[in-house]
Specification:
Blueprint: H1 2-21, H2 36-48, E1 56-60, H3 62-65, H4 70-73, E2 79-83, H5 89-94, H6 96-99, E3 107-111, H7 114-118, H8 123-140, E4 145-149, H9 161-177, E5 181-184, H10 211-221
Parallel strand pairs: 1-2, 1-3, 3-4, 4-5
Length: about 230
């Protein structure tokens, strides 16, 4: 009986020690909150080096976020990079009050939608999200030009190429019939003349452009950026 009591006490103490040693589980932010770190960093940067009013804001997902040479690529034009990797169109819409409107931009360039499709959203849903983005921007910037930089196939998401093309086509038609909207077709820049993906344009993850890929993207975008050299 004494042995049982001792054993019980030892087990109880060990359990308490183990419990005390365990670190509380951390919960990653979800929803829009998961972007707070990136958005706050933009705001901190704005306090020390505010972009000029009337600039050209580039926002969207990783293609924009990784575009580190944006200012040099469009030298002479007041471009501002406000992309955050992994984001979807609804994220850009939600944070427009903090990463678009404060600059009173003349132009807003958006490259997004691929992550949306990859997450399982239908093309029609993503297209509606884009129209909602346009509506949000129009509430504060009725005269700004909104430019959608079209999607292109990536090796690792090759199976999503048709959905990407369909979204491009919907946005292109919408832009053609809606004043103040423009569309840049980039679908074929990552394809060979036979319609196969050009692996040499991507970094090791087979999703994001390397320097050569960005060179082709720059060629498509530059004609739409006023005052760029």
């Amino acid at each position: 009986m004494k042995i049982s009591r001792v054993t019980f006490i030892v087990v109880a103490i060990a359990s308490c020690v183990t419990f005390a040693a365990e670190k509380p589980a951390t919960t990653k932010p979800s929803g829009f909150a998961r972007w707070e770190k990136e958005i706050s960093a933009f705001e901190s940067k704005d306090q020390t080096s505010p972009p000029p009013k009337g600039c050209y804001v580039f926002t969207g997902s990783s293609t924009i976020a990784r575009w580190k040479t944006l200012a040099q690529d469009f030298e002479g034009a007041p471009v501002v990079n406000r992309g955050f990797g992994g984001s979807q169109i609804v994220d850009a819409t939600h944070f427009a009050d903090r990463i678009i409107f404060p600059y009173e931009p003349k132009m807003v360039f958006l490259r997004s939608g691929g992550n949306d499709i990859h997450a399982g959203k239908s093309v029609e849903r993503v297209f509606q999200d884009y129209k909602d983005f346009v509506a949000k921007v129009r509430t504060k910037l009725p005269d700004a030009t909104i430019v959608f930089i079209g999607l292109n196939p990536a090796p690792v998401r090759w199976d999503e190429r048709d959905a990407n093309k369909k979204l491009n086509d919907l946005v292109a038609a919408y832009s053609k019939e809606t004043p103040g909207l423009k569309f840049i077709d980039c679908y074929d820049i990552s394809l060979t003349s036979e319609g196969q993906v050009r692996e040499e344009l991507f970094v090791q993850d087979r999703l994001h452009f390397n320097q050569d890929g960005y060179k082709l993207l720059i060629e498509r975008v530059k004609p739409f950026v006023p005052a760029s050299k």
